[in-house]
Write a structure and sequence with these properties.
PadR family transcriptional regulator (chains A, B), 6% strand, DNA-binding, Tscrpt_reg_PadR_N (chains A, B), 63% helix, 2 domains, Tscrpt_reg_PadR_C (chains A, B), homodimer, Arc Repressor Mutant, subunit A, WH-like_DNA-bd_sf (chains A, B)
Chain lengths: 188, 188
DNA sequence: TGCTAATATATGATTAATCATATATAGGAC
DNA sequence: GTCCTATATATGATTAATCATATATTAGCA
């Protein structure tokens, strides 16, 4: 149940509402590490509250719908600290593209190249997003030297995200080049 | 529903039983691309059969429990060919370690290094498995030059899997080194 | 006036994946 | 004789994630 712990981490930074989490966090800072659906966020908040790891204060607003502001509890902080120090099994990657390629021998080269190019485009877009994120963090680092420990860790994390994308892109480009030298299905 | 398509791909290679899929494929060749639980395999086979993408022949065995041997149908082959040519959205990676690091500022360096080292160990083991797999495919390539198109694609896929692991390992080693130069939480 | 966008939460339905367990047969080890 | 392993399939339960929709308010625009 890692989403619960992501939310605990975010609530330890500061109190937030479900809406904040969705719009300010999961669409933003943490989005490269963990994506979460709005429905899942609200349901996870309910579960965290029922476990007493967070509490809720309703903030009445007159110009807008009321907000349910969540705060982490001591029990929640203890749980988070424990989780942060626990090793978790490596997650399984399931990439449709790799499966497609694995079974692609029956397709003509042209179709394979097309597939690789579409993937390349999607990955390039993702890397661009990721780099924008990185620069935002780098800018923060410079303007606020006191919080450097946290920011260094954030940069470390984003470094991997970026490198991972770059590895993928390099591989895709090489794969596309390789396809030109691969004898086609119909040309023995 | 990609598992269904992985199974279609495997059944196009040759007819198989659910048990074959689990023990010969998902524990072996395809395991670095897609993992599947035994229960999910059998249920997916039922679903594929009800969609008429595969058919089933019961093979009576006297020394062992009977086997249900599945074959791909023409409709199944058409579906597979279509799926193989369709671009799918990039899968979301959710790596607990990255989340942990993102929120790790409150932990002492020692705890962070321990976390990284445990991850390193797990990744090293995975890379070793992966390299064994690669060598097996390379050996096949040499002994059977006629099937080279398929084998070249398989190598291409395994190349990425290996490079991805290597990127991860390099990053982990660098991260551990970096931790020694990071001012600790309790040492301002 | 009606439409859209932003703010804010909630719930039903479904899919995908995992875990646990049940059943049945045969062969080999001790 | 009993236990374990390999072969083989099936099902119940649960979790995690996604999709679709519902509801309610205010502000701004055409």
């Amino acid at each position: 149940m890692s989403l619960a712990h992501v939310i605990l981490g975010l609530l330890q930074q500061q109190e937030r509402t479900g809406y904040d989490l969705k719009t300010k966090c999961f669409n933003d800072c943490i989005s490269h590490l963990w994506q979460a659906d709005q429905a899942q966020i609200y349901r996870t908040l309910d579960k965290l509250e029922s476990q007493a790891w967070i509490t809720c204060t309703v903030e009445i607003q007159h110009d807008r719908p009321n907000r349910k502001v969540y705060q982490i509890t001591e029990a929640g902080e203890a749980e988070l600290t424990h989780w942060l120090q626990t090793h978790h099994p490596l997650p399984m990657l399931r990439e449709p593209l790799l499966v497609q390629l694995y079974f692609a021998a029956q397709l003509p080269n042209e179709a394979i190249v097309y597939l690789l190019e579409q993937e390349l485009e999607a990955r390039q877009e993702k890397l661009a997003q990721c780099e924008a994120q990185c620069e935002a963090i780098a800018a923060l680092s410079l303007s606020n030297p006191t919080a450097s420990r946290e920011q260094k860790l954030h940069r470390l994390v984003l470094d991997l995200v970026k490198q991972r994308e770059q590895t993928h892109l390099d591989w895709l480009e090489k794969a596309i080049r390789d396809m030109h030298t691969l004898r086609d299905r119909n040309n023995p």
